[in-house]
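**Fold in tokens:**
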Amino acid sequence: MTSPDAQLSIWITGLAGKAPFFDKVMSLLACDFFVPVSMSLILLFLWFGTRDPARRNKNQYGAMCASASLGFANFGVWLLNHAFNFNPWPRPFEVHESAKQAAEIVLYLPGDPSFPANVAALTFAAAMGMWLYSRRSSIPIFTLATLWSLARVYAGVHYPLDVLGGAVIGVVIALGTYGLMRLLWPLPAICFWFARKLYVA
């Protein structure tokens, strides 16, 4: 069984190899380091990067929600793939020659399940977690999440439905994390009080 959007994947991955500079850009965006490091630096900046107490407070709660959501999303995808053995279709490069060539040009051949896309689940969970506290601050994280997901589709390691499913899972988990933080109140506030006493918030 292949993903219902296989033809779209074939068309997208067929673009790889036609523009070497664009392939290099997509390779940078698709790799395991550029987006995670960039996102970490953005969250670090949002944590410390403003002198306005009200805005800093929102950003810090957003960063806490984003980080927790990311962790829960990673665990959720792991449960889905390994505990429940949910793996509805192989990765594009395992089925389509154009996707295999794209993966070899742009990235590598991962061995874990295709659906849902873990990168989309993690990054959209983090972006939504920040959005729930500060919409403006979430824009760069949403941008990175979108670029990473699109680059992975271009690289032939995910179908568009994989990243769409991952994004939905990430958003739902972020909403759940936000609700949990409200349910556990004032525990998050106590954590921040200790962090500020230690000059790390």
